[in-house]
User: Which sequence fits this backbone?
């Protein structure tokens, strides 16, 4: 497998975590977003959407991190990223969707670049934009953890789940945008627990080969 990604991309980060948790070996192929390599014809031939990540498997390409992670779950069912109980599975999917559907898309690099280029947003304004959406999402995430109380040191029990795969990269991004994480003690505790696992350590942006 070849993983086309960017060290700081949240979607690339979550896919690295999922691959590591599944114990799946992969080769990383850096796509430098700062140099806009994703917009060039070479990468467009791999992923016409010109977004990272993309996963090459036996000459075929998978795109969109949610779809790739679902494929991994189906092909490599153990260890599972979803609880056995259907109700708990739905809760984990909902937690992941808070990040994947409600926070990340509007804080994506291409959105932030548009805010700067077309609307004249300053760096401080961009940080404020990101902090607002991250805060709303994290408030909901933490509230749902208390409401449903799935137990354990992770988002849902004693093992990392899909919710953690999505949450940890978003916490990394929140810190980059200078969001004060102290208002979400449960999320901080989950982050501390996850960071003790090698699957999360190896996926961290700072240790990637293309880290700038």
Assistant:
């Amino acid at each position: 497998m070849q993983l086309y990604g960017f060290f700081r991309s949240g979607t690339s980060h979550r896919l690295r975590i999922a691959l590591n948790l599944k114990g799946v070996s992969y080769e990383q192929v850096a796509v430098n977003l700062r140099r806009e390599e994703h917009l060039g014809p070479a990468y467009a031939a791999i992923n016409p959407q010109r977004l990272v990540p993309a996963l090459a498997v036996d000459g075929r390409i998978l795109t969109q991190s949610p779809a790739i992670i679902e494929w991994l779950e189906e092909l490599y069912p153990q260890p599972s990223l979803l609880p056995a109980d259907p109700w708990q599975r739905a809760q984990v999917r909902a937690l992941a969707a808070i990040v994947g559907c409600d926070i990340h898309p509007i804080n994506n690099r291409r959105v932030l670049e548009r805010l700067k280029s077309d609307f004249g947003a300053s760096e401080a304004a961009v940080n404020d934009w990101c902090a607002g959406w991250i805060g709303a999402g994290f408030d909901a995430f933490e509230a749902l953890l208390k409401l449903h109380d799935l137990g354990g040191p992770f988002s849902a029990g004693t093992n990392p789940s899909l919710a953690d795969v999505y949450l940890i990269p978003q916490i990394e991004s929140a810190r980059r945008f200078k969001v004060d994480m102290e208002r979400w003690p449960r999320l901080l505790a989950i982050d501390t627990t996850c960071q003790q696992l090698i699957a999360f350590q190896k996926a961290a942006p700072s240790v990637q080969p293309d880290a700038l």
Q: What stands out?
A: The CA atoms of residues 7 and 205 lie 5 Å apart.
